Amino acid sequence: MYQVKTFNAIAQKGLEEFDDEFQINCSDDPDAYLIRSVNLLKSDFPKKLKTIVRAGAGINNIPIELVTKKGIAVFNTPGSNANAVKELIVALMIDISRNIFEAHDYSMENTKADVSQRTEKDKTKFNGKELMGKKIAVIGLGNVGSLVANAALNLGMKVIGYDPYLSSDAAWRINNKVKRVDTIYQALSEADIVTVHVPKNQETTDLISTEEIKKMKKGVILFNYSRMGIVDNYSVVKAVDEKKISHYCTDFGEPLISNRKEVTITPHIGGSTIEAESKGAIQGADTIINYLKSGDTIHCANLPNIQIPFETARRITIIHQNIPNMVGQFSTKIANLNINIENMSNAAKNLVAYTIIDVAAFNATKQKKLLESINAINGVYKVRIIKHQ
Fold first, then answer.
1. What start and end residues bound the annotated signal peptide (predicted)?
2. Residue 267 and residue 273 in contact, taking contact as beta carbons nearer than 8 Å
């Protein structure tokens, strides 16, 4: 029986993915965590924990380096909330360009008998701009960015895309009318609207800061619906005061940017739709099931991607340091117990490696000895033996 512990509100459709082999929130020493936005950065992790799956895109609430050394695989659910974020970006582009928020506030304040006469006179205050024909720079063309780029094209906009790490899968999703450029400065210099859709890491922190804003057109509208810190808010405030940026929209508020009419802050709702939460929960549950039952690591954040057919009686999975002679030591330990290796795969991701070894059946005594001998190898983080279903 596998034990799963959930944090935050996980959509019921996701929980329904688990069959009778899984129990939900019945143990404080679970095999898996299924989480959303809970902050685990200062958490202690149970010894039995094998995987943490984030029902969403960002994993900056998980201490990746720490859990990797504990042999815990970390996954997210890429693309599950992409459409939700795209639709919010499109809605806000229209709202800001047409001054809808200001027009609404005006209408709420002017509700007396002469409202029709007054609004006919005052409505020119809210003259906006159409999106058709405007240029939008989409920085990051992954799951969200590619959808935003295609939606902007459908609105008649001219789309400039920048993504130095664009995967082949993502490239197929992007309309060939998107003008791709080689540098971020090329993308920014032409755009009426700039929207950023990149993961947060060391390279993307302050990706949009003083120098990047200098390259933008005066009066640009800027969106950050990726993560706090990808756009430098200090530089944004200065640019807003100088009217370089006409409006800034973000999902990540802080006092520095609050109470400004040129700044629209939403309370981290980019991916918060009923549909997105259900898709993320379903994808997250399926990821837990697949990893616990097969050891496959497709879309794993901290381990290399390995996926091979599980056709033998037993599968040995080992998370370990990426150093010489590890696989040789594993093979020797297995051979010493007269266990036949039928298939093997090994890959590395930076300082960590992952090995899957498929073997013939063996008894409980050999299993105990094998676990002890592999765990005793210096550099092994976690070893697991999975029985074929």
1. none
2. no
The number of angstroms, rounded, from the C-alpha of 362 to the middle of its chain's C-alpha atoms is: 40
Whole-number Å distance between alpha carbons of 183 and 205: 17
| Rg, Å, the chain Cα set | 26
Q: Please, are residues 288 and 34 in contact by the beta-carbon 8 Å criterion?
A: yes
Beta bridge partners of 248: 222, 263
3-state secondary structure 59-86: CCCCCHHHHHHCCCEEECCCCCCHHHHH
Angle, in degrees to the nearest 10, between helices 115-122 and 100-109: 150
Taking residues 246-261, report their average pLDDT. 95
- All domains in the chain, ordered by first residue: 1-81+273-302 (3.40.50.720), 82-110+127-265 (3.40.50.720), 308-389 (3.30.70.260)
pLDDT in tens, 119-166: 566 666 778 899 999 999 999 999 999 999 999 999 999 999 999 888
Identity of the residue numbered 45: F
Q: How many helices (H) and strands (E) does the chain have?
A: 13, 16
Give me the DSSP letters along 184-222. Answer: HHHHHHH-SEEEE----STTTTTSBSHHHHHTSPTTEEE
User: For residue range 321-335, what is the model confidence (pLDDT) as tens digits?
Assistant: 999 999 999 999 999
Report yes or no: 282 and 355 within 8 Å, Cβ to Cβ.
no
- Spatial CB neighbours of 166, under 8 Å, sequence gap ≥ 6: 141, 142
Polymer length of the chain: 389
Residue type, 220: V
Sign of CA dihedral 203, 205, 211, 216: positive
Going across the sheet that includes 2-6, the strands are 22-24, 2-6, 32-35, 51-54, 73-75
Q: In what order do the strands lie in the sheet with 314-321?
A: 341-349, 352-359, 314-321, 380-387
Coil, strand or helix at 75: strand
